[in-house]
Amino acid sequence: xxxxxxxxxxxxxxxxxxxxxxxxxxxxxxxxxxxxxxxxxxxxxxxxxxxxxxxxxxxxxxxxxxxxxxxxxxxxxxxxxxxxxxxxxxxxxxxxxxxxxxxxxxxxxxxxxxxxxxxxxxxxxxxxxxxxxxxxxxxxxxxxxxxxxxxxxxxxxxxxxxxxxxxxxxxxxxxxxxxxxxxxxxxxxxxxxxxxxxxxxxxxxxxxxxxxxxxxxxxxxxxxxxxxxxxxxxxxxxxxxxxxxxxxxxxxxxxxxxxxxxxxxxxxxxxxxxxxxxxxxxxxxxxxxxxxxxxxxxxxxxxxxxxxxxxxxxxxxxxxxxxxxxxxxxxxxxxxxxxxxxxxxxxxxxxxxxxxxxxxxxxxxxx
Length: 367
Ligand code: NAD
Known about the structure:
The protein is an alpha/beta fold. The protein contains 14 helices and 13 strands. α1 packs across α13 (306-326) and α4 runs parallel beside α5 (115-126).
């Protein structure tokens, strides 16, 4: 008689293989710094095809695929032959073509905080079924998306949030690094970003300014471009960010790694020089089962740009999302929740550790 576990294993392997080998038709919402570079990246990947992209001016849809360079060379989508001019491009593109889209990348500004959570609600209304991935940054924004879990489940959507660089690559690296420890004592994320010109990543820079003293997302959402330039000039183009309200904290808390007060995020952004002012890294400090305190550090290569470190993980999580979707997973998950899960320590683990080391020491012959 065939082993039942073996056949279950085979079904899972088939599902996994099917999901992994299937061409993923991607739609990108937003054609700014990240959206345009994502179009270039997708063109270099075997199993992704860009079928749709939109911005404030309109949308372009082509089931046969859209060339990355066409997007990169166009200032706005309405300049491109075959595009549709629309002031409601997100809703129109998804409503008209939802059957042909497997996954959506949201590369929109998130100002104010509820903008992307509201876009997610609009996507639900289109009747779209599939995977959605974002690169959200703020803790409050991730909380809002998390609160839509039941709606996504009811409408056959799997929404993966916080899948960029930070939160995203560095948060999930922290979740992985945590596995060496019984208790995680501190996670410190420090990022360095260098760009030629703030205009290539307007939303990102605006959202960074929103973290500075005296600013918030509501204030920055109302500032004109001229006011943003004045603010940057006052600081010689450099933004120094400390103790940011960044979703790495809630994501690591939800993943059971540590409480949010043990997570700190900060960084330096140079808006006038493409060279990174400091190397981006995450340090994870914890206590091992043997009672040693140690720190793991994961440092990104200085040659990797923000676009490489956000868009690469976005595609990776999108592919994992397609696999999870094929296994029936729906709702909202953060990128950290789909990493190896962290087993929380017992409240009295230090007592156990002490007893273990005493008992062990007793067993070592003294002469
Ligand atoms: P950007 O300003 O360069 O581009 C935004 C695009 O969205 C533009 O094409 C604009 O036309 C379009 N857009 C705005 N409102 C729209 C609407 N209502 N309908 C259709 N299109 C609309 O943005 P960016 O700098 O590429 O950043 C995109 C997002 O990525 C931001 O939310 C930013 O915070 C996030 N981000 C995350 C990370 C991370 O590591 N997690 C890093 C960088 C950026």
